[in-house]
Amino acid sequence: MKNKSTLKQILIYLKPYLWLIILSVIFSAVSVVLTLYIPILIGRGIDLIVDTGNVDFNGLLPILIQIVIIAAVTALLQWLINTINNRITFKTVRDIRNAAFEKIQCLPFSFLDSHPSGEIVSRVIADADQFADGLLLGFTQLFTGIVTIIGTLIFMLSIHAGITLIVVVLTPLSFFMAKFIASRTYSMFKLQSATRGEQTAFIDEIIPNQKTVKAFSREIQCLEKFDEINERLEKCSLKATFYSSLTNPCTRFINSLVYTGVGLGGALIAVSGGITVGALTCFLSYANQYTKPFNEISGVVTEFQNALACAARLFELIDQKPQSKDGTRVLSDTSGNVVIDNVSFSYSPNRELIKNLNLKVDPGLKIAIVGPTGCGKTTLINLLMRFYDVNKGEIKVDGININEITRASLRRSYGMVLQDTWLKTGTIRENIIMGKPDATEQQIVDAAKAAHSHSFIKRLPNGYDTVISEGGEGLSQGQRQLLCITRIMLSLPPMLILDEATSSIDTRTEIRIQKAFAQMMEGRTTFIVAHRLSTIREADMILVMKDGNIIEQGNHETLLAANGFYAKLYNSQFEQS
Asked: What distance, in Å, lies between the first and last C-alpha atoms of the chain?
């Protein structure tokens, strides 16, 4: 059933290239007919060679010319067939890859957070390549093989029906053998693909975190883990390859029996005068050509099992349920009024996180969110940005439920600076203008100066045109964070989210940045997530969260005077250990 479902999906992606498939089949048919006509010409030529000194050279010359012309035309057709099949294959795989990457863009964060990125990469890259190899092999050999079998049967029947019957009776043994082996290789190839994905995910996890690995002297443990995965991959790959490799020799053995039967039967009939030597030679050539596609098709079948297993993993990704439906209302000129009404949320159904949370934020207020690790601070940010949808209740911006607002316009209304920086491969300028692609050079420089990043950017080899790699390799953590702050300084959205936005910046620069932030936050609704409570004294309201609930709220002085949980958190910063 799984194979049938995967085949149906493959056929859907092949449908746009149906005309190319038909053209390939036609060319294959013509190529096969011409190839099969050559043995007839050879048989005729042999019959013209009667004895020593008794050769009809006048009759042989036109036959030889025909053979050369037909061979040349067949070679041209084979080239065209290969070109067409390559086009069908790689266009189909391109479409599937595009569909997979497009699905990644609309997958819920719950899926992306629960699946290693390396495993997803393995599906889109390695599995797609394996599928392409199997599909190309199928197109190259399957069409030609089927047409060859049908064509040779017709030609053999035209020469001698009795000998043809020997071929037809023995041949199905090849099919049974190929089917028996193929049915046992699919699960092995799928396990091979899954293990390869696990290996890619592990490599993808370890390489970017080499500093951590070396800092904790975990090199040996990492090697042991990699060896264990690699050993499992070796075992399932060997099993899959071993069983699939049995197909070809088994079918070749059966085909040799067919050829032997034709040779013996044909020789007896030729001795009795039922067939000429030339016709028998022709028939033996057909018998060889007839059995050859079975070897190729059996090889295709086992390779196609691998391709199907890889395609199934790709379609599992493509068929994943997308994120919840986007809203239709576009948020523009927002005042920054935010209401959280009786919101409950949990990442896992059996573990509650946020329960019946209520909050009303007036436009332009600076809201600080504090609390112990795991209390729900970052989760609240995820809900505000609609990275996750609430399980219960609603969040409103300017009186509109965010489920009714397009995600793009909602997220454009927020400017985010997180503790974890994200920079793409490209120039410094390209990274800064992500939120405002039409920014002028002067606007970019002004934003960089406000964020105190202009000075270090000018010291780079090519200034704003300096190319950085993914993650900002070559820049310090503080410089990366300054670039992310510059990005927000440039776009200046109506609402801000600052999650430990200055955690990697030195104290002197932080004081300057805080002044720039104070100016930027003026009149803008701002949510500040902070662990260092000294950075949020000036907030209009401080929300103290614990176990998913707001247990205290007020300004700094009020909360200190209440001598509650916030006061304990604040004073703990200055306690001597």
From this structure: 64
